[in-house]
Amino acid sequence: MNINNKKRYISFLRFKRDFQKYGLEKARSYELILHWLNNRLSRSQFLLLSGILVGCTAGLAGVLLKTIVHNIHFFITNKVHFEYQILFYIIFPFLGIVLTTSIVLTIFKGQDRKGIGAILYEIAQNSSIVSSVKTYSQIVQSAITVGLGGSAGLESPIAVTGAAIGSNYAQTYRLNYKERTLLLAAGATAGVASAFNAPIAGVMFAFEILLTGVVFTDFIPLVVAAVCGSLLSRILLQEDILFRFHTREAFDYRNLPYYLILGIITGLYARYFLMVSQKVEHFIKGLKMSRLRKAMLGGAILSLLCMLFPPLFGEGYDTVKAFTNGNTNSIIENSLFRYFDIKEWTIIVFLICVCLLKAFATSFTIFSGGNGGNFAPSLFAGGTVGFLFAVICQQIGFKDVPVSNLVLVGMAGAMSGVLYAPLTAIFLIAESSFGYDLFIPLMIVSVISYLIAKWFSPISPELKSLADQGKIFTNQHDENLLFSLHTEDFIDRYSQTINENASIEELSDLVKNGNKNFFAVIDDHKKLRGILTLDDIRPYFFNDENDLTLTITKIMRAPAAFIHPDDKPREILQIFDNTGTWSLPVVDQQNIFLGFISKSSILMSYRQLLKGYSN
């Protein structure tokens, strides 16, 4: 048997072993083929194939969701007479949030973690293992919320769906943590790329937000996933659904003052948007009512806002396209402002109200029970701010104001400040507008907005909330590996204990017959009184003089610190470093002794996890 045939035979035996071990008898035919390919292909080849499959699947999910929502919006805004549209604006947004909340409570058992924070949570807390339910739950929820008028975006739900697809694919083929995280990010990348038809922006999104601090040597799966998602979007979606802007002016360096000022304005607006979001979230969480009633309240507020200002209905991309196409009057035609004499000041007042209220509409949509993200709202708000700034400049008397360009770079500025993602914003608008010559103004506005946001808060409020809860780390991605470790797993439940009233002879027997170096001294109620080590005991056991007054309470000492079961592994390691010890007792809130925990056990598990991540 030559070497090649021998390798094929060994591969066949491995596949046969896995076939029996993992119950592949029930697997679908395509899963059997992929399992076989996993055994035959090299790691890089299989990851490349995986990136294509995950990218296509996530891309199709994005196309499906965008198509459903577009058709609902088209029916409401184009097929219904104005008087009935007003009625729909009152009913549908309310119905969307209430229906979404009802579905979450009844079908998905109240599990409604959503947004980009949900992906980061799964990477840090759950070893990049995402529930299979999220492969479809986000589509269902966001289609109802945004389709019926929720003032939020579809991109975050699409990203979560893609992440779930990538994670579950990796779980099916038993890939390790690093590969699982890579495919999770590839799925999210493909989702974003399909939503905007912008593959480079999708890749930037993965590196800038999801994989901060991680260096992947084989990032090709991310690229091919983004390309697949973007291609499917381009092939299957109609032109009016695509996030495309064909009208813009050529870049003129003499317009730099406009961009500098707009960067400051969008940065301040992004801060306003985030502050309103935090206030609304705090307000809704503080209400003493059921989730369904909160949804009804949020839905009622949203419906009122949409009735008064129809651009707040849904994602709002059509409004931004109207800005760039010069079709401004169509924005007001479907609102109550149509009954006023439409002049420049009417448009300015209307757009100021829209900008200020967009933050409230989005926040009530998301936090009262709807499902959506801040991608579309930040882009809509930024485009509106940019157009408003251009109109005001024209009214003041400035000539040759680059209106379309200010709309486009305003979108990038607001997105950069809201999401803390300047690179994603820059490439997203550049790709969507075919405006690669706009890189300079895009970079100026996005960076200024981002720096202003960072000046107010070093990390985005969404991530800060998770960090404050101890869910993720925000400085080093590798440290997030510690979150996949659980304190409960490191407690030695078989630690040796001795009663504080026991005799020295009993302690001597415990030392002789036991195999531990640490002993917990407890009372009759199992509460910790102190600890003993062999070093503490040795001077008394090997002393020729017998001290008849010697008791355990005289030998024992207080521990350097206590560990509680709800302490995080990283916090425990910090306690070990501060105390200079290698073993500490674990007690509950009533000081009941639970066992000892050692620093070496945590470090060993962390190293094993890090090794698996690096392989």
Automatic annotation (TrEMBL):
- Alphabetically list the UniProt keywords: CBS domain, Chloride, Chloride channel, Ion channel, Ion transport, Membrane, Transmembrane, Transmembrane helix, Transport
| Main localization, broad class | membrane
Q: Which Pfam families match?
A: CBS, Voltage_CLC
Transmembrane segment boundaries:
46-66, 86-108, 182-207, 219-237, 258-275, 295-313, 345-369, 375-393, 405-430, 436-456
Question: What subcellular compartments does it reside in?
Answer: Membrane
Q: Signal sequence: where? A: none
Spell out the molecular function terms from Gene Ontology: chloride channel activity
Q: Is Transmembrane helix a UniProt keyword of this protein?
A: yes
Q: What InterPro entries is this protein classified in?
A: CBS_dom (IPR000644), CBS_dom_sf (IPR046342), Cl-channel_core (IPR014743), ClC (IPR001807), ClC-type_chloride_channel (IPR050368)
Membrane topology per record: Multi-pass membrane protein
Task: List the SUPFAM superfamilies.
Answer: CBS-domain pair, Clc chloride channel
* Domain named CBS: residues: 491-548, 556-612
Output the superkingdom of the source species.
Answer: Bacteria
GO CC, any one term = chloride channel complex
Entry-linked PANTHER family: CHLORIDE CHANNEL PROTEIN CLC-E
What protein name is recorded for this chain?
Chloride channel protein, CIC family
Q: Which organism is it from?
A: Epilithonimonas bovis DSM 19482
